[in-house]
Sequence to fold (630 residues):
Amino acid sequence: MAAEVHGFQTEVSKLLTLLAKSLYSNKEVFLREIISNASDAIDKLRFLSITDPSLLGDDAAFCIRVKVDKDAKTLTVTDNGIGMTLEEANLHLGTIAKSGTADFLSNLSGDQAKDSQLIGQFGVGFYSAFIVADKVTVESRSAKAAANEAVRWESTGEGTYTSEAITREARGTSITLHLKPDCEEFLETWTVRTAITKYSDHISVPVMLWEEKYEAPKEGEDKPTSTWDWVQVNDAKALWTVNPREVTEEQYKEFYKHLSHDFEDPLTWAHNRVEGELEYTSLLYVPTRAPWDLYTRDKVHGLKLFVQRVFIMDEAEQFLPNYLRFIRGLVDTNDLPLNVSRELLQESAVTQKLKRALTKRVLGMLGKLSEDKEKYAIFWKNFGNVLKEGPVEDFTNREEVAKLLRFASTRNTGDAQDVSLADYIAKMPEKQKCIYYLVSGSYASAATSPYLESFKKKGIEVLLMWERIDEWLMGNLTEFEGKKFVPVTAADLDLGELEDKPAEKKQEEVKAAQPLVDRFKKALGEKVTDVRVSDRLVESPSCVTAEHGQILTAQMRRMLEAAGQEVPEEKFILEINPQHALVQKAAQTSDDAAFAKWAEFIYEEALLSEQGSLKDPNAFVRRLNELLLA
Fold:
């Protein structure tokens, strides 16, 4: 069969163009990526061979071999893992089967330093070979296929690749890199050895390097003799099985990169071994950056599962709740059978126990991370909105997750979200009994909201929120450490002992303004559910509130509508500030028609401030023009 020429997926072509320009300052990471892939291929075969030992044939000793050929200027990495068929090679090597690729590419700026960081966050695995090679040849045979059903795949990384069926006696995969002239330092075995021990020492299978071994000169000879042989250069000990006290920080970081194919160091990690009723080892990491597919609904996120140190599956999502889907790592247990499937995992009592235990581990790890404000700020920026799903999804750990939440507030300047609920309660005045908050469409609209005026005057801190998930979160998070959450937009807002006016004085003010309130009610009719004198406004003429307490923001309304949910038309209560000059000017208007225009303008102005838009902005503008020219 003649080799067929194929075009790369568009995303791959763009990626390879960037790689060809050597965006990575540290080129040797290509070797880590290729060896990690080889290790994964061996793990997959090891698992399949549990139920079908015939897949191993007479080659049961797993290993990865790395060989340099100075004459051909090539470096070859060979494994005896699961291998690929022709169809699988075309699928896996010709496309990036990863969600979020379009988002990734749209963020590329043309700045090599910034793009290098973006690629590092995305993870490119096999394609990193093109950092050092101007041609890559892959020969592979699936463990399930006959010798004459192997494949040869080849590309120069310039938009196309060829693939053809070949005969290959050994199962597994060989990747041959034809090195670029400026990358020939990787033809030196010492350079290759150094890279392997630096990045892949923790690989649980032997990594063998074809090396020249020198022997001392024999009697009567002047020069030492040498022979070439395969030499194991890695420790080949599964890192999670090693006592944590014996593992260095650098080893943990490199293992994370092997595990996740991330190019950045993790923010933090937790390595635990538990014995007793439940026996397991876990090694859990918090990434520094969010992956591109964090919010992709059909993307499965989970831990690597090992049973008795045997790799069972990738992305086992059953061991952590969905709001912790950003966690990377593995769990190794003796309490599950080797032939466990995803379906059995879902129903297993052991799985549920592990999920509870691992969830506690992660929340404890995040609690410890929160003590480092600088690192936690990075974490919150990347994963805060995901963590906000926790109080709704995980009732059992609701209080623990709530401790990890961070907010902006009126006590701070700027939109930094660094106030914890514990911080808020610690600073509350003695008479304050509730936690006050405001959900708005943006930080700017929240920070300047008229609902905050009386709180600012009284020096009461209000938590500010503006993310899409915040309204949903606060609809489900009702209290923290016995303190109820109260929206400052609530129609029945009661500040209790924090009120600065006696009840009698408030009643007198309301009674005095009643004729004006009645005029507003008559002018607005069924457009509002009620009109009241506001005790929360200081500088603004009006605001709107809702009978059910929390106003549904325009942002949330659009989100619900996009999800196909029917959102009923919402009517508001208008609150007016009788002391404001605009309201007083309206009150001085004796003509009912003119007053009606003022009433509608004051109401729509409040709506615009709260919702960010109006159904009929043209009518609002015409009404404003008429009032200005009157």
Notes: DSSP finds 22 helices and 22 strands in the chain. The CA atoms of residues 260 and 328 lie 7 Å apart. The longest helix spans residues 29-51. The chain has a mean pLDDT of 86.
